[in-house]
Each structure stands twice: as C-alpha cells, then as structure tokens.
Design goal:
The structure holds 3 protein chains of 3 kinds. By secondary structure, chain A is mostly helical. Chain A has 12 helices and 2 strands; from the N terminus they run αααααββααααααα. Helices cover 74% and strands 1% of the residues of chain A. In chain A, strands 1-2 form a two-stranded antiparallel sheet. The longest helix of chain A has 27 residues, at 199-225. Chain B is an alpha/beta fold. Chain B has a domain at 258-495: Rossmann fold, CATH 3.40.50.300. In chain B, strands 6-7-8-3-9-10 form a 6-stranded mixed beta sheet, sandwiched between helices. Chain B has a 6-stranded mixed beta sheet with strand order 16-19-20-13-21-22, with helices on both faces. The radius of gyration of chain B is 24 Å and the shape is globular. Classes of the chains: A mainly alpha, B alpha/beta, C mainly alpha. The A-B interface holds A 174-181, 183-184, 187-188, 190-198, 254-255 and B 302, 304, 324-325, 327-329, 334, 336, 341-348, 352, 356-357, 359-360, 363, 366-368, 370, 410.
C-alpha cells in the first residue's frame, strides 16, 4: 500500500511538473501551438484507441499498426479516383480485414500476439512493396477530398474524427455486450471462456476495431500530406502504446477506457510540443520521450502489483 | 528425544490476507526422527503455514526456531540453508529438464560444471531405491506421469539430506502401489533422523505413517497428540469442530425426468467410453483421483475440451461438445475448481463476476441495459447470501467462501433450470461457508436442476451425492446409490486396490 | 537408413533448426539451378557477414525467450552500443568495445532488475527501454551518421579468413555462440536458465534463484546485442540511430526458427545459430539469385507467422476439433 501511495505521489509530481512547464513556456497557450498539439494528439490518438482495444483484450500491443496505417493511407490515395466515400470505405475495410485476421489467429489458437503482429508487419511491408514497386502513392489527379482537410476555428478534421471516434469507442466499451466481454476476456481469458464468452469472437472484434481506427488515422494522414508510402505510420506503434500507457491503461489488460486514451494522447502530444517550444533538438526530444515512456511503464506496472 | 531442542519450531505465528485471518497464534514443534501430521480441512491454514516455513510468505507476527535458535526465513534459499524441503502438489520440477537435472536443480552442493558422474550415480541410486530403472534419470520430466513426478520430488529431497521434509498431501494423486513406495521412503528417512511434516486431510494415513498429529482449524491449533493416544472419531471432531453427520443437508430424493444423458464420451488419452445420466433434482458425484480423468469429464461436459467426442443429450436434445458457449446456451453451468485461474475475474467487480455469463438476460440487440443489470446482480447476490454493498468491490477482496458464492450466484435463477457442473465445489472455502455452499446445492435440486460434481474430498462427495460413480484411469468402474455406498468400496475402486492393474 | 527413422530424427526438436536450414538451402539452390550464384564464395561470404551482424542480437533475444520473456530493447542496445563504441573507441578500440558492451549490459541489468522487483512481464518495460536507448543513440549521433576512422580495426574485422568464407568478425561471433552453447550445456547456469523458463513459480522452491537468473539473462542479452552492434559499427566504420531498424524482425524470426519456444524453457545456442543462418541464407541467397527485395519480407513474414501458428498453445486442440468436424458424417 505504501508503494501504491509512493507511485501516486510520483504521478502527481510528474503531472504537476508538466503543468508547470506548460505555464512557464512562452507561447504554449497560443493558438498555433494548441492547434499543433491537438492535431498531433488526434493522429496518435486514433491509432491509440485502436491499440487500446488490443491492450484491453489482454494482448499487450500490436507492432503492425504502423504498417497498417501506412497501407490504408496508400489504399485511400490510390482509390481516391473512385470518390472520397468509396475510397474511405475501401481503406477502412482493408484495415479491418488486415488487423482482424491477426486477431482471428490470436483468438482461435492463442498464438503469441507480439510474434503474429511482427510477422504481419513484415508481410504488409513485403506485399505493399510488391504491389507498388516501392513507389510513393499519390492521389488521383481528379480526386476531391478537401472535406478531410477542412478546419473550423481551432478544430481540424482529424481532431473532429478523433473526438467522435473516442466517444464511439467509449460507447462500445460501456454499452455493448462485446465491450463488457472484452474486459472479461482481457482480465482473465480462461475464466471468460469458462463463463461462456466466445473468446475468439471477442478477440477478433477487438482487432477489427483496432484496424478500423488505425485505418482512420491512415486516411487522415494521407489526406493531410497528399502522398503516402510505407513510412507514413513509422513510429506510430510506439507512440500509440505510449499514449495508452500514459492514460493509465494497464498493460496486463482487462481495464481501461477511451477517455484514458484521450488524456494519454493529449499529454503525450503536449509533452512533444513543450520540448519543441523549449528549443530541444529533435534528438533530445526522442530521448526524453523514450525516458518518459520508460518511467510511465515502470510506474504503471509498479502500481499493478500490490 | 525431548531432551534435544526441536529441530524446527514455530511460536505464535499469525498471518492475514486482506480481511482474512489465515493463521492466528500458531505454535508447534517438530523433532528429528518423527513424522508429524498436520491435519485440517481445506482452508484451515495448512498451506499458509507451509509457505511460511518455506520462506514464500512472511508471518505478520511470531517466530521460527531452528534447533533452538531463532531464525528468519526470508526466501526459499534461506529455507534450503536450514535444511527445510517441501514436496507439494504444485510441483517445482522443470518439465523441460531431465530427471537427473531436476534432482540436483537448485542444490547448493552442485558445482558450476554440474555434469558430474558422482551426482548422476547418486540420483540413479535414489531413483532405484524408489523402484525406477537405470535409464529413468535421463528421461525428460515432461514425459512422466504425475505420480512419477512426485516421486522425483521426493528423491530430490532424499538426495539433499533435508533435515525437515514437508510433504503436502503427498498421496493425493498416487495409486496404492505408489503410496506404498512413498511410505517406504518416509520410513527410511525417519530412521535416518529426518523430521517429516506430513500435511493431509486423509485420516487413515495419519494413523498409518505418523507419530504425532497437530490439528489446525480456522487458522488455529486445536490440539496436538500422539497418534497412538488418539481415536479416529476424536481426530475428526478436532478437525471439523462438530460431528460429521451435521455438515451435509439431507437429500429430498425427489428425482424428476432425466436431464443429462451421456454415451460414448471420449477424450483421447484421458477418458474412454463414459456413460452416465443425471436426473432433475439429483446430485451425481464422480469419484476419482487426480489424473483419473474425473475432473476432465466435468470439463468436457462444460464444453471446455475441444478435442472430445461422444453423444450428449440435454433434456432429450443432442448438444455438440467442444463449445462452452453452446453448452451454456443449452443450460449448462460450470463451476471451476480454480477460482483464480478459471472461476472468477478477481480484478473485476463482484457485480461483473455475477453477471459474466448472463449479459444476454440484461441486454437487447447487443446493448447492455445497465439498470436491469444492476437489479439483476442484486437479486443474484441476495440469492446466494452476498452482501449487496460489496457488489462494486473487486472480487479478490472477498474471502474464499464468498468468492465461491459468486461462482454459484452465476448459476441461480436462470430462465429455466438446467445442469450445474462442479469441480471441487468447496476448495479453499472455510468450514463455516461450506455448509452455505451445500445448502445452495440442495436448493438447486429443489428447483429442478441436475447436478454433476467431482471432488477429491471423498467425505464431501459421499455426503452430497445421490449417486456416486467411480472412475479409474479414465474408465468408469462402479456406480453406487446413496444407500449402498461405502467409503472403503469407493476408495478401492478409484485406487484399484482389489484388482490387478 | 530407414526412411521413417530419418524423418523422425530430422523432425526431433534438437535437430529441427538444422533441418529447416538444410531445406532452406535446398530450396534456394533449386531456384538457383543453372545460375550457380548460391555457391559462389562471394554469396557465402555475404551470408556469414549477415550472420555476424544478426547473430548476437538473435542469441540475446533467444535467451530472454528461453526464460519466457521477450526483450523488445535488443535492437536498442544493438544500436546504442554501436554509437558509444564509435565515439569512445577511436584511439583504443578495446575501450570502445568495453564502453559499448557496458552500455548494453547496464541497460539489460536495469531492465532485468525492474522486471524482478516490480514483478511484471518484460514486453511493456523493454518497450520503454528500447525507445530510451534509441533516444540516447539519436543524441549521441546528433541524428546523423557518425564515422569511425580506425581503418586498422575495420580492416581486420572485415578480413576474410578460412578460405575467404567468413570474416574475422564472423569468427568472433561464432566463437561467442560456441561459448554460449558450452555454458548452456555444461554449467549449472544453463540448467537454471532452462528451469526458470520451464517453471518460473516452482523453480525457487527447488532452490533456483530465479530473480538472479532473470537479471543475469537480461544483462547477458543486452551485452550480447551490444557486442554485435559494436562489431558491426567498427566493421562498417559508422554508426547511426537508423542503422538496421529491422533487427527485431530478423532476430525474432531467427530465434524462433532456431527452436526457441515462445512459451519458454526450450532453446539451444547452436539451434539459434542455425536459425540465424537460415535467415541470412534467405536474405543473401534470395538477392543472389535475383529475387526482388520484397520477396524476402514476404518469406520472412510467412515463416514467422507459420511458426507462431504451430507454436500456439491451442493449435493442436483446434486441429483435432477441425479433423473431427470434417470426419463427421454430414446430414
């Protein structure tokens, strides 16, 4: 218990430190900085919501979401000539199928989720390169998808999608039988099975949703940059799991919420903005982000053991 | 013998977990060259005491003395240094290593380069003494039966010249012949001056092999006496604190239509050719040792064993095996023997645990109706006697008895009464809560459920069952009605004592 | 020899990595028929060079998998150690090696100690470790490639030996593998490592100090990966944070193909060596016979997926169920 108290104290201290840094950093509360922060948080956050479904399901994390995001971004641009909504539907379907298949394998035979997603990462890279010959994807010249790039006041399209996505995810977790079963499967797989939960189905749906949210991120990113290649999602696996963990979702699974992901993504993005505003080099930013994630994991896992 | 200080003694040991007092002010002593039985029912505190002696748990208060000197046992290595060794049901063998490697695993006497002929020879000699051939020590432990593994554990401690050997329910999974081997090993150790702590709830063995018995009940020492000065009846009274007859509520013996009919049930390599029926209002008990397949029969019928075959009819309708969710839909509830791993979601709320398999009743079109769910959970809690103020507590904060009530709460008041399958329904449940559980079980019968249970606690099995089936090595060997059943017959059946194996 | 016996022998757990290696070789050789590129000494040299690059990282990862954990920080130690060695070893290469290996050793020891004291699984924790190590590398290298100017060292490491089939660097890596195999087979340590992976809860009861074993294994894994990274940076005369970002995929594939079980308790150093050789043979062999670069990714991904499926705890159960379902008469 004293350990738990110490961990809570450290958490509070870290948060206070963050707030103090925000308050004393000139320009952090300026419009451009807030827009940039929320924008960054939105893309990470979308992938993080997807990641959270996997983490809650007890399967730790996926190392293939970055590749899935890139793939779906490319698919969106390459099919953009068929109309925006069709392209979106195709890209989303691709994300759901790619990730859902991994979930099916993991759910039915309990294959190791880390290895399966590493394999999926390599396969996606190989297959996509085989199709594109390694070339970057560009939108169809006549394609029209400016809706995905609109901005109303401080709200950019990705932010709107992120907020709507987070609300939808929370509703799914709280009010659907799938959501309730997901917590059971994640907290104790065998007990869920014994209680009659169709565990493979719950696991598969969790991965399908992960694919859906990752594809959304891919689409938004591709629309933003108007080009995509396999590097589009590079690093997103790590940033997404970082947001999930910073939000306080246990890596052991069986607990968590979409709100926590939102908080985690915003804190993660805000920390990034702070480092930029304070003039740290990109290299130093990487190091500090790494240390931050390391500390968060330690604090969190420390809290899990009594 | 009393001249010398006891080789190991504890004084005033207490230990609690959450709100549960597992041990309070326990004192006992163990002398060289004697076999001390520690008896007590499930939940009496035996295993907690063992874990304290092994350094796995630390006591809240109290002291441990080794040969008169106070010692602190902070971890298993400290225990080993004092010459305390444990053979428990949770085996500590590494399945991926050979027998010889396992015998010397973790021993302080083994040099860095451990592949020494002398060590191999000692291991081979010891295994030979226990009746195993020369090449046995090179077999991987993964290929051994449970009984063989247990004998390897005993051999390990023989090789290490343990001063105090703790045997935790050593015969629970052994056949008669293997029990004899174990007893022979114990007698040899005693003659060598080893102190042996023999943990059991089997009364017969207390009188066969033990010199002295200390009885634990609800975490306290009730008494201690030489077995030669003790009667069986007195020992039982000490263990359960009352006469045996009162524990089990009587059967009403009002049986309805057949509910479950099983034919040709088979799990490759585990059980063969099982046929049984359960009527409404009836409790059928399957007796069998660990590894006999009895627990597995329950799991197959729950739909938890994918690789199984057979014809199963519920209320006259055939149901497929191998899918828990389809079995559940057909009205089959299952209560696991392992609450932590399979029975409950210890990290989740009591409420969620109660409704875990019943979200269908509280949702429409896949959407959960939280108000109905809250009311339903309250109703289920009150039916099994769980305080509804604890509905939002985590399940792990409840006592073993209350946890088991949650598991039963999942089965009560279904849309229509069905079959309840149980493995070890009162494992880790304290004596007080046990009678509540038994009352709940009889309550099921009155509502027209059929119950099929397996328990290695034969007194419980015989006390609750209307029909007892006996299982040996995956095959049914006997069937006894409540009136015609005798403990000795059942015991003989499941150990195959009267037949040549 | 009796054909069935031969098949059984080839499929036995200890031999399987070598069987897979032989089959891979045969498959590429068959595709190569008529070109003769595969047996060219340049191809073999490039295989052994890749072996030298990947081998120690795979061995380190394999060790953590034997104790039923998974160290995501292996590529981090690999890259960070390379940068450290380049920065510190310009004048005295031994100092660079010492500093580089110490980096990996310290990273492994810290993470191992945290895993033991917090009582957690390694995956999450080592993810943080990986990002920190990569961050350290970025800071050390300033985000670009830093050069190593000691030509003598890189020349020696790159020097072909043994009929031009393997470089001195490859020989060093091979020697480490042999030492690891000897430790695993002959010493108490090897036995205790297997026991820790085989029965983590039970091994302490037998007297194995599992905490020390886990800390030791993670330290060794970090140090091994670091040594691999140092040797690579010396040999390439350069270090950067982005160098060989796909080490994890290759190392995991190699360890698994090398017979390390995902559920712990199984694995041998020489098996991992065979697994690494298989991966290297695929890489160099496929490019030698003119296959497109993506072929390699697809082949590696497929192999990894197949092994993950065959190694899955429920695989046999579900296969039995499928067989039964197919065998049932349909109405």
């Amino acid at each position: 218990m004293t350990r738990q108290r110490a961990i809570n104290a450290i958490r509070a201290l870290l948060l206070a430190l963050l707030v103090a840094a925000m308050a004393t950093t000139p320009g952090f509360f300026s419009a451009p900085s807030i827009i940039a922060t929320l924008d960054y948080a939105s893309l990470i956050g979308l992938v993080a919501i997807g990641m959270a479904f996997i983490t809650i399901s007890g399967n730790i994390m996926s190392l293939a979401l970055s590749a899935t995001m890139a793939t779906c971004g490319e698919i969106f641009l390459l099919t953009s000539g068929m109309g925006m909504w069709t392209a979106i539907a195709i890209a989303l379907a691709a994300g759901v199928v790619i990730t859902g298949l991994q979930g099916f394998i993991i759910g039915v035979i309990r294959a190791n989720p880390i290895i399966v997603t590493i394999a999926a990462f390599a396969l996606l890279h190989g297959i996509v390169s085989a199709f594109t010959g390694g070339a970057r994807a560009y939108p169809d010249p006549g394609a029209e998808y400016s809706l995905l790039r609109t901005r109303i006041g401080m709200v950019q399209a990705p932010l709107a999608v992120f907020i709507a996505g987070a609300i939808a995810a929370q509703l799914v977790l709280t009010f659907t039988r799938f959501g309730r079963n997901l917590f059971l499967v994640g907290s104790n797989f065998r007990a869920a099975e014994a209680a009659g939960v169709v565990t493979w189905r719950t696991t598969s749906i969790a991965y399908c949703l992960a694919g859906f949210y990752t594809a959304l991120a891919g689409i938004m990113a591709a629309a933003r940059y108007q080009t995509a290649d396999l590097e589009l999602g590079a690093g997103y696996d790590y940033e997404a799991i970082a947001a999930v963990l910073i939000g306080g979702i246990a890596i052991q699974g069986g607990m968590g919420s979409a709100w926590r992901v939102v908080i985690g993504a915003v804190i993660f993005a805000a920390a990034g903005t702070l480092l930029v505003l304070r003039g740290y080099s990109t290299e130093m930013q990487r190091l500090l982000t790494g240390v931050l994630i390391f500390c968060v994991v330690c604090l969190q896992t420390g809290g899990a053991k009594r | 013998m009393p001249m010398k200080p006891p080789i190991l003694s504890v004084e005033g040991i207490s230990k609690h977990f959450g709100g549960i007092q597992a041990l309070s002010h326990v004192s006992l002593e163990i002398h060289a060259g004697e076999v001390l039985a520690i008896c007590g029912e499930n939940g009496a505190g035996k295993s907690t005491l063992v874990k304290i002696l092994m350094g796995i748990y630390q006591p809240d208060t109290g002291s441990v003395f080794s040969e008169g000197k106070e010692v602190k046992i902070r971890n298993p290595a400290d225990g080993q240094a004092l010459g305390i060794a444990l053979v428990s049901q949770e085996l500590s063998l590494a399945p991926d290593l050979s027998v010889a490697d396992n015998i010397w695993l973790g021993s302080r006497r083994v040099p860095l380069f451990h592949r020494r002929a002398a060590l191999r020879a000692r291991a081979a000699d010891t295994m030979a003494m226990l009746g195993f051939g020369g090449d046995f020590i090179d077999r991987p432990v993964a290929s051994l039966s449970l009984a063989e593994r247990q004998l390897v554990e005993i051999a390990r401690n023989l090789c290490r010249d343990a001063k105090v050997l703790i045997l935790d329910e050593p015969t629970a999974m052994l056949s008669d012949r293997e029990i004899e081997r174990t007893f022979a090993a114990i007698r040899r150790l005693r003659a060598q001056g080893t102190a042996i702590v023999y943990i059991t709830h089997r009364l017969g063995e207390v009188f066969t092999i033990c010199d002295r018995a200390t009885v634990l009940r609800n975490g306290q020492v009730v008494g201690s006496a030489r077995t030669s000065e003790l009667s069986r009846e007195r020992l039982v009274e000490m263990m359960i604190g009352r006469k045996l007859e009162n524990v089990y509520p009587p059967s009403k013996r009002e049986f309805g239509q057949p509910l479950l009919a099983v034919r040709d049930l088979r799990v490759p390599g585990v059980v063969e050719d099982i046929a049984l029926t359960v009527r409404r209002g009836e409790i059928v008990g399957i007796a069998g040792q660990i590894g006999s397949g009895a627990a597995e029969v329950i799991r197959v019928l729950a739909g938890l064993v994918p690789d199984s075959a057979g014809r199963v009819e519920l209320g006259g309708r055939p149901v497929p095996l191998g899918s828990r969710s389809r079995m559940l839909a057909a009205g089959v509830a299952f209560i696991s023997e392992d609450r932590g791993a399979e029975g409950l979601f210890l990290k989740r709320e009591v409420r969620e645990n109660l409704v875990a398999s019943r979200y269908g009743e509280f949702s429409r079109l896949g959407l959960v109706d939280w108000r109905a769910l809250g009311e339903g959970a309250k109703r289920l809690a009150s039916r099994v006697g769980i305080d509804f103020r604890r509905l939002l507590h985590k399940a792990e904060d409840l006592s073993g008895g209350n946890q088991q009530k949650i598991a039963f709460g999942r089965c009560v008041d279904p849309p229509k009464p069905g079959l309840v399958l149980m493995n070890e329904p009162t494992r880790g449940v304290d004596v007080g809560a046990r009678s509540d559980i038994y009352a709940i079980m009889r309550g099921f019968c009155a509502q027209g459920f059929g119950l099929l249970m397996h328990s290695t606690d034969l007194e419980e099995l015989l006390g609750m069952s209307d029909v007892v089936l006996t299982l040996y090595r995956g095959r049914l060997v006997g069937r006894y009605e409540r009136d015609g059943v005798e403990l000795q017959r059942v015991l003989a059946d499941i150990t195959h004592a009267n037949r040549s194996a | 020899m009796n054909g069935l016996r031969f098949l059984q022998l080839a499929g036995a757990a200890n031999v399987r990595p070598f069987t897979i290696l032989a089959l891979t070789f045969a498959a590429i050789a068959a595709a190569d028929l008529g070109f003769g590129a595969l047996l060219h000494s340049a191809t073999i040299f490039s295989v052994t060079q890749l072996f030298a690059t990947l081998g120690l990282a795979a061995l380190g990862l394999g060790l953590t998998m034997i104790v039923d954990e998974f160290d995501l920080s292996i590529p981090g130690s690999f890259t960070a150690a390379g940068a450290v060695a380049v920065l510190t070893g310009a004048d005295n290469p031994w100092l660079g090696i010492a500093c580089g290996v110490a980096t990996g050793l310290a990273a492994g020891a810290i993470q191992g100690a945290l895993i033991v004291s917090l009582g957690v699984r390694a995956v999450g924790l080592t993810l943080g470790g990986f990002l920190t190590l990569i961050g350290i590398t970025y800071v050390l290298t300033g985000g670009s490639t830093i050069a190593y100017s000691n030509q003598a060292v890189s020349g020696w490491l790159h020097q072909p030996t043994l009929f031009g089939l393997i470089s001195n660097r490859g020989v060093v890596v091979l020697a480490v593998f042999l030492a690891a195999a000897a430790i695993m087979f002959f010493t108490r340590l090897g036995r205790d490592i297997i026991a820790t992976g085989s029965n983590r809860a039970g091994a302490p009861v037998a007297g194995v100090n599992t905490a020390a074993i886990i800390i030791g294994v993670f330290s060794a894994a970090g140090a091994l990966a670091a040594l691999g990274g140092v040797l690579l940076s010396y040999s390439l005369q350069a270090a950067s944070a982005t160098q060989l970002s796909d080490t994890l995929v290759a190392a995991a594939s190699a360890a698994i193909l090398g017979g390390v079980s995902l559920s712990g308790g199984k694995g041998r150093a020489l098996g991992v060596a065979a697994g690494v050789l298989t991966i290297c043979l695929l890489r160099s062999g496929l490019s030698a016979i003119g296959a497109k670069p993506y072929t390699l990714e697809i082949v590696t991904g497929t192999l990894l997926l197949v092994v993950a499926i065959f190694d899955a705890p429920r695989f046999l159960d579900q296969m039995g169920r499928l067989r039964r379902w197919l065998g049932q008469p349909r109405r």
